[in-house]
Predict the structure of UDP-glycosyltransferase 89A2.
Amino acid sequence: MSKVNVLIFPYPAQGHILPLLDLTHHLAVRGLAITIIITPKNLPLLNTLLSTHPNTIHTLTLPFPSHPNIPPGAENLREVGNTGNYPFINALSKLQPQIIQWFTTHPNPPVALISDFFLGWTHQLATRLGIPRIAFYCSGAFFTTVITRCWQNPQILQSSQGVIEFPGIPGTPSFKREHLPSVFLRYRESDPESELVRESFISNAASWGVVFNTFRALEGPALDHIRAELGHPRVFPVGPLGYDRIDSGSSRGSEVLSWLDRFQEEGSVLYVCFGSQKLLKKEQMEALAFGLERSETRFVWVVKAPSTPEQKKEGYSLVPEGFEDRVSGRGIVVRDWVPQVAILGHRVVGGFLSHCGWNSVMEAMVAGVAILGWPMEADQFLNARLLVEDRGVAVRVCEGADSVPDPNELVRVISEAMSTGSSQRRRAKLMREEAVRVVCEGGECWKEVDELLRALLELGVKQG
Ligand SMILES: O=c1ccn([C@@H]2O[C@H](COP(=O)(O)OP(=O)(O)O[C@H]3O[C@H](CO)[C@@H](O)[C@H](O)[C@H]3O)[C@@H](O)[C@H]2O)c(=O)[nH]1
């Protein structure tokens, strides 16, 4: 008898692909056959996964559809930044005919489609294929409750005076207009590309099931709210994902780990990284360098290389001259992709200066490090509210993609948050205990993946 086959469709941005591949690995380990839809330039991201599961995971590699606002050759959001989301979502929706063609001629077609929540249009695709679609949320449940409300009622932007309230959502949160998810703020009524994006996000709620990279101890109320709103029990919080990532990163990364090995004092190093795609402007780099230097804390600072000539010209990612020499021995700047999960898990790392991207948040929770948050865009302001106000595991150091932190204030916050008795470090350690319980063998996230597997196998029996 053929194995039950499931189709997986990740959204081509690092922060989206990585956790969905983590989940794919967990499903493959449990014996599912899997086909991943991917475009050629993103294929190398699957190398480790494909070599780990050579007989169970296959790919459906399709050319990236051209789009007037996507530079030729760009296939990953990292190459264009978050403004590329609308063109990417629209361009990828053009893949439907090829997917249908592949599916209808497959000897053992998939019994379900698991796709990223940025690909909500795949709900209609799955309906045409006659299979259920499961939406994969690589962002948090609290964020999802807010963005769902935004898409259902985009008029909130017109009617509000700068601060927008969300009654009925646990905690009755309110946010400044500019702190709402940037993908929503870019919406323009009647613009065809915007309308496709809106319908796509709205379709997520109609999907057969939803999977979240989160866990109850962190987001119980938001998960309960979502379950009640959806009106069915197929809500699977399989997070925190990433703790056992099978791709350990580059060799330069292991140099960082060796550098960390030189220190003894537990929790004394601050790790600084703003996710996979965010670059800092010259003035922001200067303020941050000042803060790191004067706080006298140990640190690892990951600096992403500028991807366009304009960014280079404008001094993006430029580390101030002489800085590296002055901090030598207690801080390093790394200009490469690093194994973040391993770094956060190193015993000498105690703090994480982060943009509050959701994967970074999940990884920090498992590592038990305090977050020094600088939310910039997307879901990050909402994530920061959850972490700072609701959970107390983080402190804000700055807010906004264009803001320049006050250098002296930065020195104060870094020194305070990194001190041994800081409340953020204490609470982060408590959250770690919860997170570790969830991820250890037999813990809640194992049970949730098992539940998801059971649901998929049942679909296989029904359709088989
Ligand atoms: O050198 C690096 C840099 C990053 N990472 C990993 O890359 C991921 C980054 O993800 P995240 O922290 O979520 O940041 P972004 O890449 O910015 O993610 C985008 O996608 C996320 C999920 O939707 C959103 O929460 C963010 O706001 C959005 O910017 C994490 O797993 C990191 O461990 C590395 O392993 N090495």
Q: What stands out?
A: The chain has a mean pLDDT of 95. The longest strand covers residues 33-38. The two ends are 10 Å apart (CA to CA). The pocket of uridine-5'-diphosphate-glucose is lined by residues 13-16, 18, 138-139, 242, 249, 273, 275-278, 302, 337-338, 340-341, 357-360, 363, 378-380 (CB under 6 Å).
